[in-house]
Amino acid sequence: MVMPCADRVRTGCVAMCTAAACCLTTNVAAQTPAPDLSQVLPAKPMQIIVANAAGGPADFIARVISPRLGEALRQNVIVDNRPSANGVVASEYAARSTPDGSIIAVGNSGTHAINYSLYKKPTYDPVRDFSAITEVVNGSLVLVAHPRVPANSVRELIAEAKKAPGKLNIAVAGATGEVAGNAFKQQAKIDLNNVPYKGGAPAVIAVISDESQLVLTNLSGVATQVEAGKLKILGVTGARRDPQLPNVPTFAENGLEGYEVEMWYGLFAPAKTPQKVVHALQREVAHIVNMPDIRERFVTGGYEVVASTPEQFAQRVKRDTDKYRKIILDSGMQQE
Length: 336
Prior knowledge:
Layout: H1 5-31, H2 37-40, E1 46-50, H3 57-73, E2 77-81, H4 88-95, E3 103-108, H5 110-118, E4 130-140, E5 142-145, H6 154-163, E6 169-172, H7 175-188, E7 193-196, H8 200-208, E8 214-217, H9 223-227, E9 232-236, E10 262-270, H10 275-289, H11 292-300, E11 304-305, H12 310-331
Parallel strand pairs: 1-2, 1-3, 6-7, 6-8
Antiparallel strand pairs: 3-10, 4-10, 4-11, 5-8, 5-9
């Protein structure tokens, strides 16, 4: 049966209007701005859990970000330092917190990639127990020595350590420093005594006082002391020289071919935190760390600003967990 002309016109109009409405709805949805952070977080002070003592690299990152987060939320953001061996206590606390975005943690390649394989019975899973928010920054470690150590490069240190095995102490603060140090000792075939400390700041103080003679840490934690002549830098652990230290060679340049350790820091929320909260936090933090004054503070401290998406960061965590597991098992570092 042929539809009358008027009916065909009406039907066509309905079809076009319906299509236009769908298109309009889609465009409006696409143009709807993401909710502000203050709209998706509970109305109570936010806590940023730091697994190290005040003054260390993780604490530095939290205290750079927290004031701007507080401005966005229009309420206080509290930096809560909970130092312990390899950051386990703070990471456990963060993992078991209420998943509403009010408690987040600064994690790093030690707490959220290395610890899972470092312990035979880990008390938290960096993938299953957390929602990755964003990798904030990354960078190489620097090998720092007390001025009395008779070496000015990694190559010279190896030679000195071979003359007197077990004479030098290396301060260990966190799992990444421990893995980096043990990998160094193993590849260089030298004997250094590991001395554990609860955070980067206490480890650096120990080297300044000559309680320990060496430490692998971030540039931000030692730059002032190096400038004052209280410490000296022997090398950097990355695949390439640090832009802030163009005259300091890498470990690989000092004869340890293939040696490379990079330290990253990022933000994590407990697992099951709503995705709208996770993505709102990522957007706000990415905005903050790309502000010129904030970016400059990180770059001066020896970091590269990343501000990755939650998905990209989750992939990095999984990739590095697998990478360090092989290093730890191959070197016999796993602990009870």
